[in-house]
């Protein structure tokens, strides 16, 4: 199994600039899903360079950003100091083995990361465990519909060997409900995806990026209709999807 830290340790600075990860519209989606309250203690799992934690910070008491990759957290710490955030903490840890007691957090969020996790059920069980009863968790991750997922899966595996699988929104709901969550919102939305920036975020070599662009461009049938690849001024754009999910942990 490739080590996810090898994928991210040299590209941290890209994630604090990435259009998708820093977009205010995309971060507003998190706030709309989470509905944070001023007294809340929030956990942002796989926080990366802290984009989601920083979006939550003004609306809650404290945010803990957890990530496996030290270099990503160093970038988050640098930005927190630069922007003078006073209510953020950064913890090295694994989404599948959270270093927190049961029923600790008022808010749990994870964005753009579960597709790296080898054991999805274990990570969901940990989310359920550390969240307080009667509170909500948000799960936001890439979620292409079938059959486009099959095309993107090949591309994602070669773009970043630490990619495991993007679940469809239906697969998410099944797993979350099985873990005890009540899924309140489960939707996907499609974005116009800048292929070149996506590859650059992971510092993919130009030859491989060109080869993978051909994989998307050569898609056919329903997958092609879903992906609708398009070349604009010599650059590839195509559809990309995320699941936006809010799940409630029932009260005791
Ligand atoms: C694309 S970045 C996350 C972006 C960030 N959540 C945001 O909203 O901008 C993916 C992150 O997942 C982290 N990661 C991958 N597997 C992990 C795991 N098992 N536990 C914790 N973090 C993990 C990586 O280190 C990386 O920082």
Account of the 3D structure:
With 252 residues, this protein is α/β, with parallel strands linked by helices. It has a single domain, classed as Rossmann fold, CATH 3.40.50. Strands 1, 2, 3, 4, 5, 6, 7 and 8 form an 8-stranded mixed β-sheet that branches. Helix 5 links the parallel strand 1 and strand 2. Helix 8 packs antiparallel against helix 11 and helix 8 crosses helix 12. The longest helix has 13 residues. The chain is globular. The mean pLDDT is 95. The chain binds S-adenosylmethionine (SAM). The site of S-adenosylmethionine has 21 residues, from helix 1 and helix 5.
Q: Look at the helices and sheets and give the structural class.
A: alpha/beta
Number of domains: 1
Sheet with the most strands, sense and barrel status: 8 strands, mixed
Alpha-carbon Rg, integer: 18 Å
Distance between the termini: 38 Å
Low-confidence stretches: none
Q: What's the CATH topology name?
A: Rossmann fold
Q: What is the number of helices?
A: 12
Mean pLDDT score: 95
Order of helices and strands: HHHHEHEHEEHEHHEHHHEE
Strand content: 25-35%
CATH architecture: 3-Layer(aba) Sandwich
Instruction: Give the C-level CATH assignment.
Output: Alpha Beta
Helix content: 40-55%
Q: Shape from CA axes?
A: globular
Output the CATH homologous superfamily: Vaccinia Virus protein VP39
Count of DSSP strands: 8
Name the ligand types: S-adenosylmethionine
């Amino acid at each position: 199994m490739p080590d996810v830290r090898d994928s991210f340790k040299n590209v941290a600075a890209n994630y604090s600039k990435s259009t998708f990860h820093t977009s205010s519209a995309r971060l507003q989606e998190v706030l709309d899903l989470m509905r944070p309250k001023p007294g809340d203690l929030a956990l942002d799992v796989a926080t990366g360079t802290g984009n989601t934690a920083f979006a939550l910070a003004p609306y809650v008491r404290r945010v803990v950003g957890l990530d496996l990759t030290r270099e990503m957290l160093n970038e988050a710490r640098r930005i927190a100091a630069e922007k003078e955030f006073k209510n953020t903490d950064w913890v090295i840890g694994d989404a599948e083995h959270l270093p927190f007691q049961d029923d600790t957090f008022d808010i749990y969020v994870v964005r753009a990361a579960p597709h790296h996790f080898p054991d999805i059920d274990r990570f969901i069980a940990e989310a359920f465990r550390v969240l307080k009863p009667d509170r909500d968790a948000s799960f936001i991750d890439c979620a292409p519909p079938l059959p486009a997922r099959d095309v993107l899966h090949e591309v994602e595996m070669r773009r970043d060997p630490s990619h495991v699988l993007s679940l469809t929104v239906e697969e998410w709901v099944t797993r979350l409900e099985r873990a005890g969550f009540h899924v309140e919102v489960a939707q996907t939305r499609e974005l116009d995806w800048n292929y070149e920036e996506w590859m650059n975020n992971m510092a993919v070599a130009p030859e491989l990026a060109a080869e993978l662009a051909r994989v998307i461009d050569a898609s056919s049938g329903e997958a092609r209709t879903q992906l609708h690849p398009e070349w604009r001024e010599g650059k590839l754009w195509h559809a990309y999807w995320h699941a936006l999910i809010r799940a409630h942990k029932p009260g005791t």
